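Escalation from tier 1.

The customer reports that the assembly of two entities below gives different structure tokens on two consecutive runs. Tier 1 could not reproduce it. I'm attaching the input and our single run for tier 2 to review.
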Amino acid sequence: MLIVIRDILVVIFLLGGFFFLAVGIVGLIRLPDLFNRLHALGKCDTLGSGLIILAMLLIYPGVTNIAKLLLMGALMFIINPVMTHLITKTAYVRGTEMVKGSFTVSTYYEEEGEFLAGEGEE
Amino acid sequence: MIEKTLQFIITGLPFLGIAALYRAFKGPSTLDRVVAMNMISAMVIVYILIFSYLTEAYFYLDVVLVFNLAAFIATLCVLKYLREGRLF
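Tier 1 run:
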């Protein structure tokens, strides 16, 4: 009985993870702008990989493997949002073109267009 | 039932990878390619995990850990080079 419940949970998690990865890829291809693509990917990437790792946690045998999987999940939940934030900041600093009609509330540029973000660097 | 689902996912993931490679080929700016490669590395991680469970070769978990960190460092270096114009 417990095994059946575990199997159903694992199948739901696996299909959910695959669905979110597919939705992220659809967003990557269809959306018109780099920031829109990052908006689609930054959540779907973490959620899809996290759901599949959660499903793998339920079916892997052995304590060592489960510890490694937990470490991997923690690593991925830290690394992926940091990476998305860094890519977005780099794109904003480099002045990537946005889709027509969008606007920004600037915190990095002064009114003359001077660059403010790298102030603490050498 | 789990085996069937895992085989379905391991069959479907390369098609998603090809679709992401299309964006990496066509993308207008360099950062689009960085985003697509980031997504492909995340899917490779999932692929190796499922492969390691299906073939019962559990030492691939270490490979996944090292691959995760290597992809992180690679993207970090590309972004630092794009932003500052030099690496060191």
